[in-house]
Amino acid sequence: MSDKENLYQQLLQLDGRGYKAYKAIQGRYNFPEFTLIIARVQGDTFASPSHFRVQMSQLVAGFPPQLYQTHSREIALRDYLTRQFAQVARQTSSRRGTGRSGLIAITSVGQTVLERTACGVNGESVEVRFVVGLPARGRQILGRQAAEMLCEDIPEIVGRSLKYSQLDPIAIQHHVETVEDADWLRQQLRSRGLVAFIPDGAILPRRSGVDDRPLETDAVPFESPDSLRVEFTCPNRGLVRGMGVPAGITLIVGGGYHGKSTLLRAIELGVYSHIPGDGRELVVTDAATMKIRAEDGRSIVGVDISPFINQLPQGRSTSNFSTPNASGSTSQAANIIEALEAGTQVLLVDEDTAATNFMIRDRRMQQLIAKDKEPITPFIDKVRQLYKDYGVSTILVMGGSGDYFDVADTVIAMENFQSSEVTEDAKAIAQQYATQRIAEGGKQFGQITPRVPLPESIDPSRGKREVKLKVRDVDQVVFGSEDIDLSAVEQVAEAGQLRAIAEAIVYAKQQYINGKRTLPEVLDRLIADIDSEGLDILTRFPEGDLVRFRRFEFAAALNRLRTLEVR
User: Mean pLDDT of all residues in the chain?
Assistant: First the structure.
């Protein structure tokens, strides 16, 4: 009797028994075309679903090596197969019993193409990791339905989603080449003196604030101003033209609802590649770009915000600033300094989510409130120094303050979602209508001092559990007894990134956070480990819901852990 038949009979024999009896099916089963691994069985019908893996030999899967021969192509193919598995699973699985019974699902995906542990591809095999809601009525096993799920539904899903002969070869090739072109473009930016590229014809507007798919009706294709148009010859697509955003200080201006924030949002997510049909497939941004905003109420620990804020009341230090409840201005200052500490090279700021008193202090306010009574040095007086001293560029959406014309290198105007370069006009206006404001904050930006995180302040335990981690949507991590709020960290694309970040904090504490290494040193070592060993290095057992994150989001999460202490 084959393993498949054995599993089928075993499940029939479990029919009607208590749910915990499902534990008996854990193990490996050799099906005709693949190996099924039941790695963990849920203890209750309402508990988290059971963890399954399928491994299929390339002799059966049959994917041509050119589809995964480079890292970029491999990630793209893994992404494609994850989406195919999810689609076929939705079509095949059905509700069987109570709770999560009947569920067959893989990690959820969005518009971005990311490295995920849900699927792996190499020259030997293809592997997928997914979850199954083993069926029951109440707490009684539904053995026959379980046998149908595991021995009929799963083979059908695997056969339709993981075998090259059953898939659309043109669609796969297009998916892989699109991602490869985007990755290639992103790598060319710095050599061309650019921080971002938006191709002609891109569709930037989204359907809604909660639906990241492209707008279907009335979407205006992007068109570059002639003065900013650049050309690239991509490895697959060939010649592409579009707007190159130069290094330096760039303003995006225009009336309300004309596309300023839409353009910035596309640039913000251009640190990731996107699926074909997204509209932003070739919108690319320097990989070391960080979106910054004000964040009232966040915790700040030992950050030197003195480049922006000094002379606080009661003589509070700003070179080692800590607070459990930051204001808009102190949080924005800390967010910038922390991003710089983590190694960012480009800052993105939208005035709609910025603290007004942090961004600008005009001449009239300078006259009314003397500098020795105002602790904040506004960003307008530091943004040029930041570029001159550290080579960090800034892109700002600015609709309310023309004072920034004085410090801008490039000014892009948006009107009805179409762009034009108005740098010369802005400079002429700045000369004609001089603000006469006095520059504040000295001649240098100031020091960026790396901090040393203390391991004893990072505790993932809760009650009797040594490690308690949980992710709520895409904006909150439960880390031990603490909630880490990442709702203001806008470049998190998928919940799986937060799951991986939580595991990475535990890993970094065990391996590298020793009270001596600075945070940048910890980040370097952590990212190097993931680059060489993959995300599986973060967990004791293979998990299917981890998604690759950037060093900046990891640092942001650690910085928002309220128990964190630094030296």
Answer: 95
Final residue of a structural domain among 124, 150, 167: 167
Query: Which pTM value belongs to this model?
Result: 0.95
Task: Tell me how far apart the alpha carbons of residues 92 and 99 are, in angstroms, rounded to a whole number.
Answer: 18
H/E stretch holding 495 reads helix 495-511
Residues in the chain, total: 567
User: Last residue of some domain: 145, 167, 189?
Assistant: 167
Residue corresponding to tokens 């000094």 = 310
What type of residue sits at position 438?
Answer: I
Q: What is the DSSP string of 329-370?
A: HHHHHHHHHHHHHHT-SEEEEEGGGS-HHHH---HHHHHHS-
Angle among Cα 66, 67, 69 to the nearest 5 degrees reads 55
Q: How many angstroms separate the CA atoms of 563 and 458, rounded?
A: 7
563 CB-side CA count, 13 A? 14
Q: How many helices (H) and strands (E) does the chain have?
A: 15, 27
| Pair 150, 7: CB distance under 8 Å | yes
pLDDT at res. 89: 95
End-to-end Cα, the chain, rounded Å: 64
As a whole number of angstroms, the distance between CA 505 and CA 509 comes to 6
